[in-house]
Amino acid sequence: MDRAQIEPRVRELLVQALGVPSTSIDPDFSASSTPAWTSLNHLMLISQVEGEFGVFFSNQQIRDLTSFKGIVEAVATHLHGSA
Amino acid sequence: MTSDRRIDSAALHQIAATVGAGQSWSAYQTAARTLDQIPPDAVPDHLRARVAVLASFTLDPLLSVLRVEAARQGLWLDTYLSPYGQYVTELLDPASGLYRFRPHVTFLAIDGDVLWHQRWAEMPPVRSEPVVSGLLTPLFAGLDAFDRLGSGIMVVNDFVLPRPSAEGVNAFRAKDTFAHTMGQANKHLRLRLALRGNAFLFPLSDVVAQVGRSRAFNWRTHYRGHVTWSDVLMPAVAERYVGFALAALGKSTKCVVLDLDNTLWGGVLGEDGAAGIALGPQSPGSEFVDFQRELLDFQQQGILLALCSKNNQHEVLALLRTHPSMLIREAHLAAYRINWEDKATNIRALARELNIGLEHMLLIDDSPHERAWVRDQIPELRVPDLPPDPSLYASWVGSLTSLIVLRQTAEDLQRTRQYQESRTREAYQVSVGSVEDFLRGLGLRVSIDLVTDGSLARVVQLLAKTNQFTLTTRRHDEPTIRRRLESGAWRVYTMRVIDRFGDFGLTGVAIVEPGPEAWHVESFLMSCRVIGKSVETALLARIATDARASGATTLSAEFVDSGRNQAASAFLSQHGFVAGSGGRWLRPLGTPGPEWPAWVGTTTAESSESDLVDSAKASL
Predict the structure, then answer these.
(1) Residues 6+ apart with CB under 8 A from B533
(2) Which residues in chain A touch residue B27, judged by CB atoms under 8 angstroms apart?
(3) pTM of the predicted structure, to 2 decimals
(4) How far is the C-alpha of B350 from the C-alpha of B330, rounded, in Å?
(5) Which pLDDT band holds residue B614 (cuts at 50, 70, 90)?
(6) Inter-chain contact B25–A40, Cβ cutoff 8 Å?
(7) Which candidate in B33, B224, B227 is best for mutational testing of the A interface (most A CBs within 10 A)?
(8) For B250-257, what is the mean pLDDT?
(9) Which residue does chain A place closest to B225, by CA atoms?
(10) A59 contacts B26? CB cut-off 8 A
(11) Could you report the per-residue pLDDT of A43-60, keeping only the tens digit for each?
């Protein structure tokens, strides 16, 4: 699975978990600029990403996965790393 | 009357329908946001419930799931969640957010791990008894406070250990293992909750078993942020929570309407004959016996059963009387319509006969075609999809959210018999001439008393359920009534009605605020079963007599239009009340009346074999 396939699915999960419009999610979209991205929503979002792609992040990774780009990259690395 | 901004239960249901079975939490979030876009004032009051959740772990993600599952049942929820881990504090503090919120239902969600941590707080782990009381003592101190300060019902789950035990194969021999501690905790929880009329045990262990323990808990979110319940457990719990909310608002199912062919037995009676249908100790046939057994369990809690089937009535009645494996007999049925009319017409007729709103009825029918037709004709009726395979019927019916009976009063348990008496009564009505002759011939007797410990549950139930003949439709809960009685702010009258065909039970309630000058009627309601007998005049006459005796000069009352209480709209003007200012109706007590109806006699609680009015009469 390449980035082009991962991106729309992560985007959809962000829309659902945070309630933001799809159009607002550009590559720079991140927790620091998004009030709805609270720590609890972060927890639920990451859990949904893990369920969607069948991956598992470490606690260290989770703390850093605070942007759209970061999540997409982490998923891609995970999938390729385990392939 | 309805503007296009007005939201009804069908609209709520439609929003919830976007989330199907087995969908993730994200899907619930999206649907909950759609609910958020509805302006709260667009939702009529009778669809709204206030639900509080107190939890020992993080349950914020449950709220969106709960609101969507409520919408699926046509309910709009206002929710309150206690601050993390502060459930005991919230219960004990009179100024807590919980008490300001005035919930209809409070769910206390306690993680079994709390018990586990309590046990491991000391090394080596201590004996069961101090662990159990260490948890339950503060909890029940909190519940005592809730009784004094709170509102509505309290629902507490049993303790479930989220992981397999590591205590080994010999644990069963020993006392004071964790398994033993948990068993003791659940036993004491159950025994102590059972003593509280407004408290219920939520069978979390049952729901966990239903979804499977390994799927019920999410260890990743548990350790990352104390979100212990998984995406799979939350909807299953929410569905049952909503059942309690429906019941607390008086919106549960009161009557289950049953089809016959391929529903209560296999095959078609008209074609296969009584000997040819599948109904007996072996399969095919035992599925239907088990299903009937489950239905009778509901019937014994006070839910009415009725039949609605396209069949020849004499064949069905013969089968009910003689088939050796039929468990549901004529005596279990409140009413039936067995003919060749369409089902919607028949169900409306059943609703009229039983005096039950169609929104309180539920149809069980194996035919998707009939279900679709009835849903289309009667949108307010509950028509769940029966599984296509009869082997699933018995396990399916227990999961129906709306079949919850909170209070089992003596009236509930006698209700089927009362409806059978009413069939005889109506046959009599046809045979006499004028209404007055009819009423005189009924031999009506009433017993009007002040509420007692024994009758309070029934009073709360009537307040919660009565929609038609009610002046103000105020739903007071038990703690509120107790407080007002203790402070002397209220006098609560109850009326029991009997006629020569049978006993209607406690079917009238009036709440009066006695003042030195004026007595104010805060609530006044009659069960629909006794409307049209002028017993309401008798109750008002008694209140007027008591008010005069105390020196009051005026009765005052209100009529609050709920959109459903037209039956009571003319009551005040018919009884000498004149509209005053601020929505109040006034009746000077200087003028005589209201007259006690000549055809209504009195009876005493004792001679009417009351099982509700105990010896502690007027002790409240």
Answers:
(1) B439, B442, B444, B497, B499, B600
(2) 16
(3) 0.71
(4) 16
(5) very low
(6) no
(7) B224
(8) 94
(9) A43
(10) no
(11) 999 999 999 999 999 988
